[in-house]
Design goal:
Elements lengths: L1 E6 L5 H14 L3 E4 L7 H11 L4 E8 L5 H10 L7 E6 L5 H15 L3 E5 L3 H10 L2 E5 L3 H17 L6 E10 L1 H14 L3 H10 L8 E3 L5 H6 L7 E7 L5 H12 L2
Parallel strand pairs: 1-2, 1-9, 2-3, 3-4, 4-5, 5-6, 6-7, 7-8, 7-9
């Protein structure tokens, strides 16, 4: 199982640069940022691209209802992101999420020779991702429900007569009491979003139960082992107390021991 590392795109540039260098040096397989609101995830990812040479670079994910394929293509090119390392993640909320994602991927594929990743939460999007994507990004899932979602992705791929896409899962990881408090707050925010509220209801769990809230570094490896075999690559979404370089480097090192 591969192991990636992810940061909030609005994190200070020096933290993104240092974390990307550390992740590559430690042998992580990918480094990700998100694309929240008006914060340009493509520009944030470009900071990591300039600091690294080998590690895959993911953006998880750009919402197609607020930024269309043409703008995404322009952003990728303007930021000189390396297409051979790029994991270009997109997604969409309802209404018409399936239609928007299918059309968006077709347009992006026609213009960019890079790997296209779809954010999939519900059963229908999992099947669609299996049909059309190069990779699938799960979010706020338990390992058991990631396995169930993976089956839906594989079924979609089989129906399209193609190889199943690579499976990624964002898993939030917090280390220390203050970071765990921030994790709980983030989970509460997501629980107010209709699509995620439905997701938590389907699983019958609270948001924090999908994450790793560790009070000490030695609690992280056993929690990560629960994901073995659930997906192809687990992406650790860092949640720290103050978003410093030191906190993120410590988290990178503690998680890599797994």
């Amino acid at each position: 199982m591969g192991q990636g590392f992810a940061l909030f795109a609005g994190t200070a540039p020096e933290v993104i640069r240092a974390s990307a260098r550390e992740a590559e040096g430690l042998g992580y397989t990918s480094f990700w940022v998100n694309h929240p609101g008006k914060t340009d995830g493509l520009a944030a990812l470009a900071l990591a691209a300039k600091e690294t040479r080998r590690i895959d670079l993911g953006i998880g994910v750009i919402p197609l209802h607020t930024r269309g394929p043409e703008s995404i293509v322009e952003g990728v090119r303007a930021n000189a992101l390396p297409l051979d390392r790029l994991l270009l993640g997109v997604g969409s909320p309802n209404p018409e999420a399936l239609k928007r994602v299918r059309a968006g991927l077709a347009e992006l594929r026609a213009q960019l020779s890079t790997r296209l990743i779809v954010a999939a939460l519900g059963p229908q999007m999992c099947r669609l991702a299996g049909e059309v994507a190069d990779g699938v990004l799960f979010n706020w899932l338990t390992p058991d429900h990631a396995r169930r979602s993976a089956e839906l992705v594989r079924a979609g791929a089989a129906s399209a007569g193609r190889q199943a896409p690579k499976l990624f899962a964002y898993v939030r990881v917090a280390l220390g009491a203050a970071a765990c408090e921030r994790l709980a707050e983030e989970g509460a925010r997501y629980a107010t979003i209709p699509g995620y509220a439905d997701n938590f209801a389907r699983m019958g769990v609270k948001p924090v139960e999908t994450a790793i809230a560790a009070q000490s570094p030695d609690a992280i490896p056993p929690a990560l082992r629960a994901w073995q075999g659930a997906v192809d690559e687990i992406v650790l979404r860092a949640v720290t107390a103050k978003d410093t370089v030191e906190e993120n480097v410590a988290l990178l090192r503690a998680a890599k021991t797994a």
